Records
---
Amino acid sequence: MFIRELPSPLFTVEYLPAFIMLVEKISKIKLQLQALHLLIMLMPEANRDTAKAFLQFLKKVVANEGKNKMNLWNVSMIVAPNLFIYKGKRANQQEMQAAATTAHIVRLLIRYQDILWTVPSFLISQVRKMNEAAMNNSKRQLMFDKGVRKLLRRKTMERERPERPESDIPEGVIRVYAPLHSKVSMAIQLNSQTKAKDILARFHCENSHGSSQNMRGHIQSLHEIGGNIGQHCLDPDAFMLDVYRANPQAEWVIKPKAS
């Protein structure tokens, strides 16, 4: 009833045609999911958060099929009109005929929802490549300037040691900063199983006895900053060794998650 009574559709008027077209124009499920993933990322944050909570509820309904007799197909057919037709707007014949299409979209949303709420990995990789290309172009442009080239040569001769103290840290070890904690930094050895949430848990454990008042009541997240990414809030289940290898020049900072 809440979804049905919204003054505008949960998936927004702007993107409703795109949701329909991704089924009608794309036949392969994998490509449909990629398009669906991108559309979810484009939605306003409030709509996306509401959709996430609603789909998690629907997943529980489907999981209890044995008790409520509501399988994935039945749930999608019932829910689809409420997501794609909204209060104050009558459904025309064409929209009614699109019921099967919208039901298919809802089935994809329920079945594959676990991968829809984070930025796709191929987009992260593309951002890294773009940033690396931009940095390389900047370096080449600087080399055309003879004065800058001489300055760089002199600076290189003056310092034989690495630019950053962190470069002395062994391979696979990162230094994580947490400015609002009582313990503001920690070197952590990564392995193939280390996740972002493991690092957050370790800081929480280390600071449990003398926790900072500033952090009390805040949900925290680990951020990858600099190198080839700018700033990236990591998913709690991200494998840190893979992220480190993709961006070894990054800094790692724990911050309160934006409300």
---
Amino acid sequence: MASTGGLVPITRTFLATYYDKYPFHPLPDGVSRLSSQIRSFAQDLIQGFPPTQGESLLIQEADSQPPHKMDENMWKNREHIEEILFLLERPHWPPLLLQSSTSEVEEFAIVLGKLKDKFQTTLRILESFQARNSERVFNTVMTYMPQDFRGTLIRQQKERSERNKQAEVDALINSGGSIGDRYALLWKQQMERRRQLVQLGSASGVYKTLVKYLVGVPQVLLDFIRQINDDDGPMEEQRQRYGPPLYSLTRMVLFIRLFLSLAWRRFEALKLNRLQISVLEEAVDVYTTELQRFINFISEVFANSPFFISAEDGSMLEMRKNDEYKEITVPAGKSYEISLTVESINSYIAWDFSLVQGKMNMDIGFSVECTNNGGEKTLILPYRRCESDQGNFSTCMAGNYKLIWDNSYSTFFKKALRYKVDCIPPVLEESGEASERNELEE
């Protein structure tokens, strides 16, 4: 992978050099010890009380290896925390615990309240980390995109996609979907986000048309985001370095969830003893403390990672000079027009312009019209006066489209117009991509 404009190729070897500067202090021995104790307590609970189908699935997951991808582990931790919080809510306590009023039960209720507070705090931190990280990845990619209508189109597509995803989650919740159902959907949506980044890097799917016209985007960045899901790609170095401690924490919270789930269903027959409660309290304290420490650490690593370098650094400003706007002077009492011949519907016509202002703020009239092949004229964008504008639309007919900057109303003042205009033709779609393109055109 060749360097572009002085940028260093983003490879696994390159990331390894960077990660050498950020060693993660190992998890305390208590993580392994307490995880084993909690798992042993859970095993004791099913002796003589065979697990239900749901419990069997949870046991199977607890005895399996955690996911390999780090972000999937983050989602798994979040899911298990929410499941635990559900169990710790008073309405979901075992009936015997709700009905009893002994000092021992009251002490246990106080402990449960403390555990709930710790999990709620950790959940908020994890949610905030995921939101910031997701936004940072997208914003970094967008930093390298031309700062005109093409970047705007990609942002609009992303925002529309996120609204659709949230509506999908809301519909699931309103239909009575479980916490597990919701997180299965959330992970599916996360993989869709990754897939869209891959499409951007490989110029396919909803981004195929636009990427053909993305002048000045460094190939090293496109190569990186195209490979972001590869098991042996650049991010594998991150998994090898920082995955093991996160995997241990994923197992630990799953063991805690399994133990509580089994204990709640068997509470009347097998009340928890003081040792089990003490170990549970210590395990929750160690887990929440260590997960928060890991999130704070990995946040710093991500924020400073080389694939998050600002495009304003290094040679990116020079690269953007290859994507310059045109400038022209529109004399007083005159107009300036650009004609674009469109042969296919669903082409994109887009513009981005501004007036170079002097001592006085100026405006200029702007409109868009189309004359079809039969000579019939249609006003696409009504006339209005403005200092600058950026916009786009998808054509619904073939013909001659004319963008008009009108300075005829001005008697004395000429206008210095800086502009960019493009007509982006549709790209023939491969099988399975038609529906993806529709997202962009809605």
---
Amino acid sequence: MDIIKGGNLAQVQHVVLILSGKGGVGKSTLTTELALALRHAGKKVGILDVDLCGPSIPRMLSVGKPEVHQCDSGWVPVYTDAQKSLALMSIGFLLEDPDEAVVWRGPKKTALIGQFVSDVAWGELDVLLVDTPPGTSDEHLAVLENLKKQHKVDGAILITTPQAVSTGDVRREITFCKKTGLRILGIVENMSGFVCPHCSECSNIFSKGGGEELAKLTGSVYLGSVPLDPLLTTSIEEGKDFIQTFPDSATFSAINSIAQTLLTSIQNP
């Protein structure tokens, strides 16, 4: 199928999906931190949050629940900074009550995802990160099919934790990528060890190396590991910029390295 790069994605340079076959592995956290790392590298970044049943990124970026405005081109994304270098669109902005459950069948979810892909006026972006729900279901197919109509999708980053139960689910996500022709940009092992807040020693409480081993077995690029870090947890809970607040931490180095590898990969496919 020929891809017509137009509409609201015309000025977006690269599109990257964040995937995992399992919930609770930290997709939204890593999406947020990668976006912040890319912004600090001087890039204009957008986040499309299509985790319709668990939209957590607005809280992680401390943007509250602003009113979503419309312009001639469609919905205007919510900007997290005055320079408009980080844009966000999420169903969290459209819910009257943040505690309201999204109890929708597939067709309604698919229709909203289609709107998110085509009707958000992103403007100029270097990278658009798409945070997805766990699994390989309607939402993923809807995102991919709608994006491919308008823009080349550079690929996907797969998130896992070290345990075999997680890597097994991510293996199915790899199969999904192969079936849909989606390039795998790499695998990240999240929660890879625990960083002690007192001595900074890292203990492997969830085992270690599952993500790297999975990458070797499947012929995928291993992007690196990110430890469990109480400082990162606190930053996420309070909506603070971890990258800016703790630039000397090992976790910062890990996230920044993954972001730089991602940039190199999409700029030199």
